[in-house]
């Protein structure tokens, strides 16, 4: 609890999503300027908790990601406006630097006709790299006996207003594995938009908190009560947790979030439909196996291309009925080889185990 804490903040700066969040038709509209005032107060509180606490702020903008502020970066005092007697000078320097960089980056975007995908993965990757540099710098300058007293307690807070990007599933999962290895906690504060499947998984797998804010105009209260305590203190206080977690994955072929997935038994690639050859490891699967998997798909349309005709069997049946023309007469159906039907909030199902493209 006496260790220093490093906080990396990933701020979603999508102009389109913030414009939608500020619409008067929303139950509790909030603008980017108003949310930044809450965020700056939270960052000041983090720095004030302990002198050794460090901070790094990264912005996720359309098509790119940038570092907006770091507690170790040099600051040009001449560019900072003079503070009044009621303002703490370090807080004034930090607030002015962050606002100046945000304004310059947003103005540089202009007004494009089509907004590029948000650079969320890049911002999260830079936050992880910064934590890795801070951690390695601490271990190289101290002895092993002093590691527990010098290493910062790293965590990342994601301020999100954009929906999930299905193409970012693999990079996000790699970031989750890296965070687990570095023991980095990822917290998520969802201000606007629908539930984020990938961020839910990131918070759950790293021991963080995922909070979908009901009142965006009271974001400061959520930040102070839920995300200000470092991971070392969360064992002693009650931190909000997730009631339901969506473990759906995105297929490797079309980058769509799927409820039912067919997993390659060699490289564990996920596909939304059976494929004759795995696009990742180039493993070939037998025709009989493909026919059996196609027949087990609950939403397969009768007579569609590459899908055998099926009778109208209820979805709760363990083994779907298959017409006589779908498989050779000598082929028997093994119920254990039929993929499981996955509902929302469950892990993706796997196909029958295979080795070198042949059923075991």
TrEMBL record:
UniProt-annotated stretches for the region Disordered: 296-360
Main localization category: nucleus
A Pfam family it matches: Tfb4
Record key words, sorted: DNA damage, DNA repair, Metal-binding, Nucleus, Transcription, Transcription regulation, Zinc, Zinc-finger
Molecular-function annotations in GO: zinc ion binding
Family: Belongs to the TFB4 family.
PANTHER family: GENERAL TRANSCRIPTION FACTOR IIH SUBUNIT 3, TRANSCRIPTION INITIATION FACTOR IIH TFIIH , POLYPEPTIDE 3-RELATED
Protein name: General transcription and DNA repair factor IIH subunit TFB4
């Amino acid at each position: 609890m006496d260790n220093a804490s490093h906080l990396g903040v990933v701020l979603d700066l999508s102009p389109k999503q913030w414009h939608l969040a500020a619409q008067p038709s929303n139950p509790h509209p909030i603008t980017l300027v108003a949310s930044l005032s809450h965020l700056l107060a939270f960052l000041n509180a983090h720095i004030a908790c302990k002198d050794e606490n460090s901070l790094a702020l990264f912005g996720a903008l359309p098509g790119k990601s940038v570092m907006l502020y770091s507690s170790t970066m040099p600051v040009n005092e001449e560019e900072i406006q003079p503070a009044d007697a009621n303002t703490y000078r370090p807080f004034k320097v930090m607030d002015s630097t962050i606002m100046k960089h945000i304004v310059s980056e947003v103005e540089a975007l202009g007004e494009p006709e089509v907004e590029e995908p948000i650079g969320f993965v890049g911002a999260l990757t830079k936050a992880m790299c910064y934590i890795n540099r801070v951690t390695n710098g601490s271990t190289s300058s101290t002895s092993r006996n002093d590691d527990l007293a010098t290493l910062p307690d790293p965590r990342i807070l994601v301020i999100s207003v954009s929906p999930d990007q299905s193409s970012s599933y693999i990079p996000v999962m790699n970031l989750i594995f890296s965070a687990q290895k570095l023991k980095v906690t990822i917290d998520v504060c969802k201000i606007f938009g629908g539930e984020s499947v990938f961020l839910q998984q990131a918070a759950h797998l790293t021991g963080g908190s995922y909070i979908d804010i009901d009142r965006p105009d009271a974001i400061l209260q959520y930040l102070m009560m839920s995300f200000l305590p470092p991971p070392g203190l969360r064992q002693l206080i009650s931190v909000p947790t997730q009631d339901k977690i969506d473990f759906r994955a995105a297929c490797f072929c079309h980058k769509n979030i799927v409820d039912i997935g067919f997993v390659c038994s060699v490289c564990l690639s996920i596909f939304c439909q059976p494929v004759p050859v795995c696009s990742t490891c180039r493993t070939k699967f037998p025709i009989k196996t493909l026919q059996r998997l196609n027949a087990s798909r609950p939403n397969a349309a009768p007579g569609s291309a590459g899908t055998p005709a099926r009778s109208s069997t209820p979805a709760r049946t363990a083994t779907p009925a298959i017409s006589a023309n779908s498989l050779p007469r000598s082929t028997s159906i093994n119920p254990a080889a039929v993929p499981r039907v996955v509902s929302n909030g469950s892990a993706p199902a796997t196909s029958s185990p295979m080795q070198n493209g042949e059923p075991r």
